[in-house]
């Protein structure tokens, strides 16, 4: 579970996957997209430039690791990486595997369609798939 408390929106929309060197990994509960959110385990941050140099390096390693996991599992057309925070001020980084055939392509996923939550079985399967992929990728 995350070291720092999650913003209520992240806690509501995200499913805990794992902890990395500097971030907890959440799966956004929208089955339309393989969509991870990395939340740095540092309190009271809203933007990437607030990380010290050591933490920035760790967060970037986590972003690369999460990106490799999504590429390995889903072979996306494009991998979107963004730290916006306009609606949720807590620093978090979106990693979204995008496909030329997905519901929002080529536009952003935000607000394109209502989320379609994972059903209980699919949610458990996807979280386990991601957990195993993170372990495998870290060992590679």
From TrEMBL:
Pfam families: HIT. It comes from Magnetococcus marinus (strain ATCC BAA-1437 / JCM 17883 / MC-1). Residues 36-105 form the HIT domain. It comes from the Bacteria. One of its GO terms (molecular function) is catalytic activity. This is Histidine triad (HIT) protein.
